Amino acid sequence: MTQRFADILQGLMDNRGLSARAVSRTSARAESTILQLLQGSIPPSPEIVKDIAPVLQIPEADLLTIAGLSATPTGSTPRPYRSSAEIGELVSIASSLSNGQLRRLIDVARNLKSEERN
């Protein structure tokens, strides 16, 4: 099951143009954890699946089922970000931009952040 999940995870990441680093940063999980999942050297846990599902833009219950885990909620788990689904979408879009477009996106994000402070 671990290798099957690793293959599916890799496919989901490939389809969305996400690297292990992008998934790591957006899910607040260590890059080594994501790499171990991709290698099939560690099994997916409910906590990890809950953190990476929004990044992959897949319902948490679906990814839990793919991982062979119970899709029944086990309680409230704090989210690493208040808008993790939106951040995951942003990372997915940003990963397919040209270098110039990416620089412009970073500039827009910085401007938005500085507006928030004012």
Describe the fold and architecture.
The protein is an all-alpha fold and 118 residues long. Helix content is 68%, strand content 0%. It has helices spanning 2-16, 20-27, 31-39, 46-56, 60-66, 84-94, 99-117. Helix 2 crosses helix 3, helix 2 packs across helix 4 (46-56) and helix 2 (20-27) runs antiparallel to helix 6. The chain is elongated and about 50 Å long. The protein starts with a helix and ends with a helix.
Percent strand equals under 5%
Spans of at least 5 consecutive residues with low confidence = none
How widely separated are the two ends? Answer: 51 Å
Number of helices: 7
CA gyration radius, whole angstroms? 15 Å
The counted number of beta strands is 0
Q: What is the averaged pLDDT score?
A: 85
Global shape? elongated
Query: Roughly how much helix do the residues carry, as a percent range?
Result: 55-70%
H and E order: HHHHHHH
User: Oligomer, anyone?
Assistant: single chain
Give the biggest sheet: none
- Briefly note the structural class of the backbone: mainly alpha
Reconstruct the topology from this structure:
Layout: H1 2-16, H2 20-27, H3 31-39, H4 46-56, H5 60-66, H6 84-94, H7 99-117
